[in-house]
């Protein structure tokens, strides 16, 4: 029994990371009706930037803030110069652009930083596991950080004027433009936020999975499953779905299929959700107006 | 153009494609040309799904893998001759395509992209899975024999593989052209251009979408089986996400909604790595990415549309009417 509890707790810790990435995906989906296939690679690239800063002697938390800022700017620039011009193009073109970005980030990272696994430092110390060996310090710390990020994002959208404007721009771009909201700038901001969240998730997961150019493939897949499970139109759903996926991953890995079929588990969940409840747990059923 | 020259020209082209390389090309060049033919067929499968069917599949590499493994397992475990494995490879990859396509097709666009992307990521892991190891050989993969020329023909194995591949690919290109020109092809184009109007005209969306997805998977699966013969080896890591992305890049660069685009795309897939390695030594994949985005911006119709545009201009200048 204690083993099960152990798996659940550490599942919640990784689940927080899936939740962040899923939230970033949902934010971009709500604003643009696009799925950002490059989300994971952008996060991976940001994590390398963080490692570079830390190795240059920058203290962890300053490197952390710098990395988030750099990623934020990078996300805004990508939206402005790559995706905005394609915003009215058919699905195939935007998917093509995302895959192009995926290839570029993946290969540039491999070229600059090499393809070997690199350890990434944790700011929470290696010390003894906490709460009677239930959870490692890093897991505890990363859970707190991701939770703080999620609450901050929620408060930003709920209580600030810019957050309200962003929601409006995503919900109804035409009317928003009429009341004076700079919709394009809001989209760029959304992209910046998504890239920033991704960077934090990357820095939190890297000490667990080690840093390499392909480290985010599995994380991204679980985040996709999380977003679909929670409902791709629901930010809350993304968070709940993320935590659930973390727990499912651990329990399935420990008791059902083993770790060898980790990615397949996510694939099966994606297919099952799409077959039985395409709107997910919290999402709205998508209806197209005729 | 008279009806006669309509089929004479492709036949002459095919004959030239068969004879000239066999006479002049070295073994490695023949292998490269074989791979061009294989990728052309695989990209053609993708063109049918995405270019004509208007559905974004990112997991075409998975169907390639199903075809390749079906052929390799039948040859390795059950001693089937290579040519006999092709129909089975076609059926299995087509069926897998239908099975995966069905749930996502009902939901359209991005969901399908997502499911197929997830599939592409998980393929190598599935192929390595212990429970299937007896058939798939696990991480090691399967080594098979190169096709030997029959009836004591005075050809090398490379030459025979090239001719066999070319013949199979030509048949499927012929079938694809007929499919596109048929009632089914017209329905597909109608669905892609305006799904609602097509439905109102009595075209069953779900049926045609599922059908073309299955057919596309089948084409790519045959490509995979042929590649198993040509490479004489299959292993899980050659069917990673990178393969699916490569096929996607080939489709976009060749021209998604054309048949000849598949050939341009295949030429790009086989020969571009050498070129991009020369341009940007460290990260050839990044060159792919940049080219992909540039095409999205400036030539969404791919190379085929460029050929058409500049070809038309040239013709006009050459013979002013």
Anisotropy-based shape of chain A: globular
Whole-number average pLDDT of chain A?
85
Proportion in β-strands of chain B = under 5%
Instruction: Estimate the helix proportion of chain A, in percent.
Output: over 70%
- CATH-derived topology of chain A: ABC transporter involved in vitamin B12 uptake, BtuC
Reading the helices and strands of chain B in chain order gives HHHHHHEHHHHEHHHH
Rg of Cα set of chain B:
20 Å
- Give the averaged pLDDT of chain B, no decimals: 79
Structure characteristics:
heterodimer, A: 290 residues, mainly alpha, B: mainly alpha, two-stranded antiparallel ribbon
Summarize it.
In chain A, 74% of the residues lie in helices and 0% in strands. Chain A has 290 residues and is an all-alpha fold.
What does this structure look like?
The complex is a heterodimer of chains A (about 290) and B (about 325). In chain A, helix 1 packs antiparallel against helix 8. The N and C termini of chain A lie far apart (about 55 Å). Chain A has about 290 residues and is mostly helical. Chain A has a single domain, classed as ABC transporter involved in vitamin B12 uptake, BtuC. Chain A is about 75% helix and about 0% strand. Chain B is mainly α. Chain B has one domain. Chain B is built from 14 helices and 2 strands, in the order H-H-H-H-H-H-E-H-H-H-H-E-H-H-H-H. Chain B has a two-stranded antiparallel ribbon with strand order 1-2. In chain B, helix 4 runs antiparallel to helix 10. The longest helix of chain B is centred in the C-terminal third of the chain and has 27 residues. Chain B starts with a helix and ends with a helix. Chains A and B meet through helix 4, helix 9 and helix 11 of A and helix 4, helix 5, helix 11 and helix 13 of B.
